[in-house]
Design goal:
- The strands form 2 sheets. Strands 1-4-5-8-9-10-11-12 form an 8-stranded parallel barrel, surrounded by 9 helices.
- The chain is 41% helix and 13% strand.
- Helix 14 runs antiparallel to helix 15.
- 38% of the residues are buried.
- The chain binds ligand PBG.
- Ligand PBG binds next to helix 11.
- Pathway: Porphyrin-containing compound metabolism; protoporphyrin-IX biosynthesis; coproporphyrinogen-III from 5-aminolevulinate: step 1/4.
Length: 435
């Protein structure tokens, strides 16, 4: 910040103006400008646009410095003491359009618009910022060699773990996104009621983590901890015959899954299953295997939301029956998020996540105000697809709505945002495209 003030255009203008071709030691350029400007301003007093005068003043100063000095500092000071001030360029407010009522201005103490009147003031007082460092990019991977487009999520693909994925990570890093979360599309033949493929050390996720860490050692890899991609029932946990999702038995599997991901090199494991007590159990399992430095990002307030629809299409992970309402939260509930947050914090979570994002900004703010932990928000598939679809139909400006939605999630209190827009938005923030 300090250096940007030092090298501001204004500071440069002063240093450039002092060394002129003439040997006179006084920095008269500034005064010369004023004198000449005033002369030309009076000569052209009839000119309607005051901007013209400014242009002339610049030209005048340029020619003055080329043709040598006019007045010394002493002469200028004497003129000022005598009350003989050079006239500044005239400054006038343009009138309103014809028919504008002539009124007596309101007697207002506060006019908040004063602080919004120019781009410089607006950016000086901006309270929230958005940076590629805040983004985590979710990536869908599959066993194939080719990338397969996801119909319900324009611009997203099931990426070939060996090629397409590497390419995507490379491009994301190019615009400053260094954090990724992996979601695997598992072949049906590997799915089972107990989701045992989830802790196969040679499975798609651990294998991909090893490859990514080998190619890009400095990236941060988040993983998803839940059984749904591996469950033949499409649920996040083991389903009992009567349809009950078994809590503690599921956690036993999740611990093996998280340890397998940690062994492969995951930096942050992220339980998205909403079983009770999983954070504490995962912490203990990781520590028992020596993974004390692997973080846990807990999906603290994950709602049973219709906004996950496109994601479930992407992974073919729709529940085969029923819904997820016995473990994911009721969208009508707010206070309940505090119960989840307190449990996760007590059990040792490093990051608390709210999901979905934009429709749940009140919950993001609730956790922000009730925990000192970093808060994450997940702008989920449905939020992404709605903006994309409305953009394609030219009902909204896709880019501007994208940036605004991300900013609003930050304003609500999220430190990081998991978003399918991460690369596109970071590109704009890096100036790849104008905002
Ligand atoms: C499942 C999981 C889901 C998402 C992330 N992890 C779907 C679900 O709970 O059914 C949704 C992400 C999205 O919609 O973008 N563990």
């Amino acid at each position: 910040m300090a250096s940007s003030i030092f090298f501001s255009p204004a500071a440069n203008a002063v240093t450039v103006a002092i060394p002129t071709p003439t040997p006179t030691p006084t920095p008269r350029l500034v005064l010369v400008r004023a004198n000449n400007a005033s002369a030309s301003a009076t000569a052209t007093a009839a000119t309607p646009t005051p901007r013209l005068v400014l242009v002339r003043a610049n030209n005048a100063s340029a020619s003055a410095s080329a043709s040598g000095p006019t007045l010394t500092l002493e002469e200028c000071e004497a003129a000022a003491v005598a009350g003989n001030f050079p006239a500044p360029p005239p400054h006038s407010k343009p009138p309103g359009p014809k028919g504008t009522p002539l009124i007596k201005p309101l007697d207002l103490t506060r006019r908040p618009r004063r602080n919004r009147k120019s781009p410089t003031l607006r950016s000086a007082f901006q309270e929230t910022t958005l940076s590629p460092a805040n983004f985590v990019l979710p990536l869908f991977i599959h066993e194939g060699e080719e990338d397969a487009p996801i119909g319900a999520m324009p611009g997203c693909f099931r990426l070939g773990w060996r090629h397409g994925l590497i390419d995507e990570v490379y491009k994301a890093r190019d615009v400053g996104v260094n954090s990724f979360v992996l979601f695997p599309k598992i072949p049906d033949a590997l799915k089972s009621p107990t989701g045992d493929e989830s802790y196969n050390d040679n499975g798609l996720v651990p294998r991909t983590i090893r490859l990514l860490k080998d190619k890009f050692p400095d990236i941060v890899i988040y993983t998803d901890v839940a059984l749904d991609p591996y469950s033949s029932d499409g649920h996040d946990g083991i389903v009992r015959e009567d349809g009950v999702i078994m809590n503690d038995e599921t956690i036993h599997q999740l611990c093996k899954q998280a340890v397998s991901q940690a062994r492969a090199g995951a930096d942050v494991v992220s339980p998205s299953d909403m079983m009770d007590g999983r954070v504490g159990a995962l912490r203990a399992a990781l520590d028992a295997e020596g993974f004390h430095d692997v973080s846990i990002m807990s999906y603290t307030a994950k709602y049973a939301s219709a906004f996950y629809g496109p994601f479930r299409e992407a992974l073919d992970s729709n529940p085969r029956f029923g819904d997820k309402k016995t473990y994911q939260m009721n969208p009508a509930n707010y206070r309940e998020a505090l119960i989840e947050a307190q449990a996760d914090e007590a059990e040792g979570a490093d990051i608390l996540l709210v999901k979905p994002g934009l429709p749940y900004t009140d919950v993001i703010r609730l956790l922000r105000d009730n925990s000192a932990l970093p808060i994450a928000a997940y702008q989920v598939s449905g939020e992404y697809s709605m903006i994309k679809a409305a953009g394609v139909l030219k009902m909204i400006d896709e880019e501007r709505v994208m940036m605004e939605s991300l900013m609003c999630i930050r304003r609500a209190g999220a430190d990081i945002i998991l978003s399918y827009f991460a690369r596109q938005a970071a590109g704009i923030l890096c100036g790849a495209k104008s905002n």
